[in-house]
Design goal:
With 279 residues, the protein is mainly alpha-helical. The protein has 11 helices and no strands. Helix content is 77%, strand content 0%. Helix 4 packs antiparallel against helix 9.
């Protein structure tokens, strides 16, 4: 019932200023992804909600899922050219996870918007903790596809299902969950997990976006503005990253993790009322 109500609501008309803010939000997300290799997509939802001022949480999730998906597919290209993608494992993770993402996104659409944002903020705090513990991966030689040990196939499928479910439910690419999922289930080097994860990030986001679009919960105009800003921001962030040493990038990662945590706490405060709590 709630999904039908949301889908039949009148489309939101944004002002010119909000369109500009959408592009700037995409720039910020893309810049972060290019600069520190992650974290930007987790800020896409709060940016569109509180910076741009988009009023419908479910449309925000569907729209940012599409934007994250397209940016992930674009970033997959240079990793593939560098030999950083284990295609066999990446395809299995993407296909299994996409099926789980469809289930997760269907559940997410049925949850009250404020409750979903509260749970999303909890996930942001977990992501911030993972970012604080993150270490620069060691250099690895050029990769080649190799048969995975038999025991790793089951771990790969289970990890893909769990991560896909979470990514679909919250409408995120899930890179910070996919990378360790690939690395732990297959034993592949971290650089391979990072490159291979982009196929799943794109596929999970696209699956979620299509599911939300089926219910009328996707704003294609805002998504295109976000994507345009994200492409430009990612290019700039990548260029800047090449000029920074590991120590500087680690400091930026720390600052960004703290920013994610602060935004998460703000979202928790804004959405406490969904559970009948007030501060």
């Amino acid at each position: 019932m709630q999904i039908a109500t949301l889908a039949s609501s009148a489309p939101v008309t944004l002002t010119l200023a909000q369109h500009v803010l959408s592009v700037l939000s995409g720039l910020a997300v893309g810049f972060s992804l290019g600069l520190i290799g992650g974290g930007g997509s987790i800020l896409a939802v709060p940016l569109l909600l509180y910076f741009v001022g988009y009023p419908n949480p479910h449309v925000v999730i569907g729209t940012t899922a599409l934007a994250v998906s397209v940016n992930a597919y674009l970033n997959l290209i240079p990793h593939a050219r560098a030999g950083n993608v284990r295609w066999r494992d990446a395809l299995i993770f993407a296909v299994v996870g996409a099926a789980a993402a469809f289930v997760g996104s269907s559940l997410g659409k049925a949850v009250d918007g404020k409750k979903l944002l509260f749970l999303f903020a909890v996930l942001m705090l977990v992501i911030a903790g993972l970012m604080l513990r993150r270490r620069e991966p060691a250099a690895a030689p050029t990769l080649r596809d190799a048969p995975a040990p038999a025991a790793s196939w089951l771990r790969l499928v289970v990890a893909a299902a769990l991560v896909g479910m979470l990514a679909g439910f919250f409408g995120i690419g899930g890179g910070f969950l996919i990378v360790p999922g690939l690395a732990l289930s297959t034993g592949m080097p971290m650089i391979a997990a990072i490159g291979s994860s982009l196929l799943s990030v794109g596929t999970f986001g696209l699956t979620t976006a299509i599911n939300y679009a089926r219910s009328g919960l996707l704003d294609i105009t805002v998504a295109l503005l976000f994507i345009g800003g994200g492409v430009a921001g990612g290019w700039v962030g990548t260029r800047v990253a090449t000029h920074l040493g590991k120590h500087s990038k680690g400091t930026l990662n720390l600052i960004f993790a703290l920013l994610v945590a602060v935004v998460a706490l703000y979202m928790l405060w804004r959405n406490l009322s969904a559970f009948g709590l007030h501060l």
